[in-house]
Design brief:
about 400 residues, alpha/beta, Rossmann fold, eight-stranded mixed sheet, 21 strands, about 35% helix, globular, binds cytidine-5'-triphosphate
Length: about 400
Amino acid sequence: MLQDKRILLILTGGIAAYKGLDLIRRLRERGAAVTPVLTRAAEQFITPLSVSALAGEKVYRELFDLTDEAEMGHIQLSRSADLIVVAPATADILAKMAQGRADDLASTLLLATDTPVMVAPAMNVRMWTHAATRRNRDQLIADGITFVGPNDGDMACGEFGPGRMAEPLDIVAAIEAHFAPGPLTGRHVLITSGPTHEPIDPVRYIANRSSGAQGTAIANALLRLGARVTFVTGPADIAPPQGADVIAVETAREMQDAVTQALPADAAVFAAAVADWRVASASDSKLKKSAYGLPVLTFAENPDILAQVAQMQDGRPGLVIGFAAETDDVIANATAKRARKGCDWIVANDVSPATGIMGGAENAVTLISADGADPWPRMAKDDVATRLAGRIADALS
Ligand code: CTP
């Protein structure tokens, strides 16, 4: 089941580290290659010698282990794996991951990677239920990190409750589920997301309020179904989907180029809020107040990326999905937009300020296809994404 899978296993310092040894054994029994990384605190509980003996590979312990020319750099080490597993994961490593800190080898690897990450927390029940750990867990889930456990049970510290690390076989089952083929395994889906920035001069730009939340959630949902995802994103603060091929762009024209490069795809989802216009007279040097007074900007139309892909003669993706953000006559406008652009589906939503959808956690959409308008109940953006990914999987099956 795990034949030829490369797992980077990060063991952090907790009493459950001894179960990490069993985890290595179980993974190797199933054919996985395990590259172990130990934090300093983990070495208080288990020895590098026993870890490397079980893994059959060198143990990486310090950032300077990687400075030798013959060794892999930390970027390469973190990216050469198919999956990174942190087991046990202490409250401390979760906090570092949530904040993006990189002050030792383990945290640096986790920050430098675009490989999917799974964590198996292990800590005292009060640490697990502390508001700070809850916050960190929520942040990490939003960042696309998968959690296994912790379980309820008697703990080494004498207390009872949630915080005990999941059993090695449960972690193995979660790892196998991660690699199990999904309905979109072998399929390539292209997604655009976020806003675009259109320069006025080298320091100023025109932008919009898109957060990229819905596009990111769709990417994560498609990845969970096994799709290979290319994620073309404009400048957004939200963490990009873990495990996608991420292409960061700024302008609509850069987004168009990235989309063209990323094709062919089985399906393409255009969730980006692309600026309809760019400044035609963008200046190469900063506009000086003294020299210009009030500048007059002239605009040029940006390429309509969705329409272009939807109307491709050769190599059009089998399913092309656009979004329509409307404030009036939502269904009529979105239905007309679907016909005008030539896409298969339009996900329409009402972004009137009264709905609170723009910038909020929820969305109420209507899926418009050749079959007509299908209104979905208002739900979390993550649930919209899961449902849309399911529909895409059905359509491609
Ligand atoms: N889109 C695109 N390229 C553009 C503009 C829009 O790919 N240059 C895509 C968006 O990603 C989205 C859909 O087209 O999927 C939105 O269409 P658009 O015409 O931009 O909608 P509105 O901005 O709502 O347009 P209108 O002003 O006509 O309502």
